[in-house]
Each structure stands twice: as structure tokens, then as C-alpha cells.
Amino acid sequence: MDYQSSLDRALDEMPDLGGSDERLEIPDAQAQKDGAFTRLTNLSAIADALSRDPEHIHSSIQRELGTNGQYANGRARYNGTFTGADFDAAIEQYVDEYVLCSECGLPDTRLVIEDRTQMLRCEACGAFRPVAKRKRSQKRTARPDVEEGKTYEVKITGTGRKGDGVAEKGKYTIFVPGAKEGQVVNAYIENVSGTLAFARLA
């Protein structure tokens, strides 16, 4: 076999490293409002598409959205009001950090632990790198929409389980005892927990 034939054969057997993630088909996030919470009803399907642990994805989404939540039976619930687009953006960040190979751009990777360090190993090109801990985006460090000790004019758009008026401001859900749905009130923020705020009429 001459050199050119050997070279052609070797090239034919090499993996395609075109740097494309077209084979990665992720379902659109399905958000469902549930009182003061938002459910992500198809997290399990998203995890299957990414070949990742759903609880790992859930933890990353909490970090990206700056909130707390719970995961059980393939569904996740997060404190606050979020849209499918919010979840999609958080999942896109997860894919960039924990799925796509930084060398060839393919999703053929797996997470492994080496010397107590989380590593991303690419089975397409062989690249092996530690998972970089990204800093929170600048958006996450901006002044929050709701702060303790401040008063905001809000419109009451719903009623909580205990009969409190419920308003939305940015990604915060505000509970205002004594306020009725349809009213516009001044709410003094007494306490903020995650994306939930507890207020009194000012």
C-alpha cells in the first residue's frame, strides 16, 4: 500500500471534528406557573437529551436564575416567576459549561471526577479539561428589583393560599397581607427570601 493510499485510509477513519452541535436536540423548556413557584415540567426529558443527571442540571438552573427550588420525579419547581425562555437560557449556559467540548464543539462528552476535580472528557476528539467555574453574569450582580426596607407601588394580580395579595416585580413574587386583587398599593418590603418578598401596606 503506497503512502497516498495509507493517508487516504487514515483520513477516512478519523472522526468528523467539524465543531458542530447540530446533533444535540434539546426539548424546549416547559414552564408552568404554580402560585409563588414555577415548575419546569420536562427537566427529565432535557436531562436525557443531554445525557446528564437531572439533579445536576437542576442545581445549575438554580444558580443561573438566582433562586431556590426542589426536584422530584422528573419535575423541578423554583421559587418565583420564570418563563420557558428563562429556563432555556439557563440550560444553554449549562450546555456551554458541562456538555460541549471546548476543542471540537461536539456534545460527545462525559463528566468524570479526577483527584476530586470535575473534568469534561470528550469521546470524539479526546480532549480532557477541568470544568471551569464561571462567575455569575453581570446581570446577576446588578441591583435587585426588590430590596428589604424599601417601598414599591405594585399592582395586586392574584391571591395567595393564605388570602394575601400577590404582586410581581421583575422576578420577585411579593405577598401583601390585606391587599386585594386588582388594587394598586404601596408595599413596604419587610423580608426577602430568594425570589419571594414579604411586605406590608405602606
What do you see in this structure?
With 202 residues, this protein is α+β, with helices and mostly antiparallel strands. It folds into 2 domains: 128 residues, Defensin A-like (2-Layer Sandwich); 51 residues, OB fold (Dihydrolipoamide Acetyltransferase, E2P) (Beta Barrel), CATH 2.40.50.140. It is 25% helix and 33% strand. The protein has a 5-stranded mixed beta barrel with strand order 8-9-10-12-11. The longest helix is centred in the middle third of the chain and has 15 residues. It starts with a helix and ends with a strand.
Summarize the structure.
About 25% of the residues lie in helices and about 35% in strands. With about 200 residues, the chain is α+β, with helices and mostly antiparallel strands.
Mean pLDDT, rounded to whole units? 83
Low-confidence stretches: 14-21, 135-141
The helix tally amounts to 5
**Strand order within the widest sheet?**
8-9-10-12-11
β-strand amount: 25-35%
CATH hierarchy: architecture of the largest domain: 2-Layer Sandwich
Portion of residues within helices: 10-25%
Largest sheet: 5 strands, mixed, barrel
The helix/strand series, from N terminus to C terminus, equals HEEHHEEHEEEHEEEEE
Tell me the overall shape. Answer: elongated
Q: How many discrete domains?
A: 2
